Amino acid sequence: MDQELEKTLWATADKLRNNMDAAEYKHIVLGLIFLKYISDSFEDLYNKLKEDNLSDAEDKDEYLAENVFYVPPSARWNYLQHQRAKLPSIGKDIDDAMDAIEKDNPTLKGVLPKDYARPSLDKKRLGELVDLIGNVGFKQEGHSSKDLLGRVYEYFLGMFADAEGKRGGQFYTPESIVKLLVEMLEPYNGRIYDGCCGSGGMFVQSEKFLKAHGGRIGDIAVYGQESNPTTYKLAKMNLAIRGIDAKIELGDTFHNDRHKDLKADYIIANPPFNISDWGGEQLQDSHMWKYGVPPVGNANYGWLQLFINKLSTTGTAGIVLANGSMTTNAGTENEIRKQLITEGLVDCMVALPTQLFYNTQIPACLWFLARNRTNHKFRNRSGEILFIDARKLGTMTSRKNKILTDTDIAQISEAYHNWRNIDGKYEDVQGFCKSANLAEVEANNFVLTPGRYVGTEEVEDDGIPYEEKVATISENLKGYFKKSIELQQRIKTNLVKVGIEI
User: Which of 216, 323, 196 is CA-nearest to residue 267?
Assistant: First the structure.
């Protein structure tokens, strides 16, 4: 029922955008969903305080104490939907509401969209959108309005990423990839970091993982940075809706690191693939390049070393990169990769299926890095690297896109855990996974493509002798040629009947 609700809401909202570009419309819709969410959260606590004779329902401190945003009267959803939505001034009313909320809640300052009054935005359609979002949560048994709004926000992020195509990948990593990263790393407690956090999907999935495994959101501390100002705002709203108290900063991570002293227990990231305009020429003397200076024309090995620099002494990282990062010999990249391998930082490599991303058809892989693989938290894996070839996995969800199913995710993550854990029962599976030693990797010139190591998948023997198979094929071919000659003869006979001879 939830999925049907999400699809119906999307179809209706998408219809209301008329000819507006998806990238522009995204902020209008997601801003309204956020406004509805914090208004519903406020109303829940407001009604409880009203019933308590010792409390003042309009005291802002009451809401601060419960980690709930205070919403002033003119910004409350019921007022906007039932008294303002049908008026031509609805755009200005929403802008004023966003201003009022930011004024009363300093942590939201500069985050909320405030361009609803612009003349180009159809106010009748805006009012219809307010009505549409205003009905989320009503008549949905077993769910609170807030929970549903969180799901809808996340669903809409994915749909807007799909609608925007290439630009959508700047703020959204497909959910199944994020889920795989989180399932493999198992962030039960500690500091989680993403230096290119987009709309915050890595953190949302970490929170879901904790809840699914009986953990508490307070067991993790979330740190992130995003260089795109509009994407940064999406992340702040997305995490606020999930109730995640995250320290998300705005700025270029390479040139203006806002978490300089952080040492993270988990790093989960999907940096932009193969970017050339990352300002590498200004960072030639950076302290981060312990394993070699990355080429100025590609940031991939800059990201890898930046994240290694951020890991705690027992930290682990899961990073999405283009497949080329596993084999490249450009500039110093081969030498850096060799250093990472021989220093024991590369724990596992996963080759992903194609068509998982909305924004690119570039094949991708996952790098799993571990600062210390002899720390007794897991099995001593020094001198080994696990290779997983998952290219044959995944299920098509449309003509152009694929997802990793829960079964796929379990197959990949369980192989890693069985290999990594002290009590794991790991076995190589031909065509899928292989635990290789450093001598094997060196023999392959330090190339990290899983296909080089796992071999081809074994074909199940059907029990039919080889000679019998050959005889069957021969008989089939004889029958094919006989039918072909008979067909040609019939065609000739029919042509003669109509006066044509060949």
Answer: 196
Cβ contact 313:357 at 8 Å: no
pLDDT digits (tens, 9 = 90+) for 157-203: 878 877 776 554 566 788 899 999 999 999 999 999 999 998 888 88
Chain mean position to CA 45:
32
* Dihedral-angle region of residue 55 (phi above 0 means left; psi in -120 to 50 means alpha; beta otherwise): beta
CA–CA separation, 43 vs 79, rounded Å?
Answer: 12
- Cβ distance 173 to 198 under 8 Å? yes
pLDDT value, residue 213 = 84
Domains of the chain (ranges, CATH numbers)? 2-166 (1.20.1260.30), 168-454 (3.40.50.150), 463-502 (no CATH)
DSSP 353: P
Average pLDDT, integer, range 476-484 = 68
Alpha helices in 388-465 (DSSP H): 406-420, 438-443, 451-454
Mean pLDDT of the chain: 88
What local confidence, expressed as pLDDT, does residue 458 receive?
55
Longest dimension (CA), the chain: 107
| Cα distance from N-terminal residue to C-terminal residue, the chain | 67
Strands 190-194 and 220-226: parallel
- In 3-state terms, what secondary structure has residue 355? coil
On whether the pTM is more than 0.70, the answer is yes
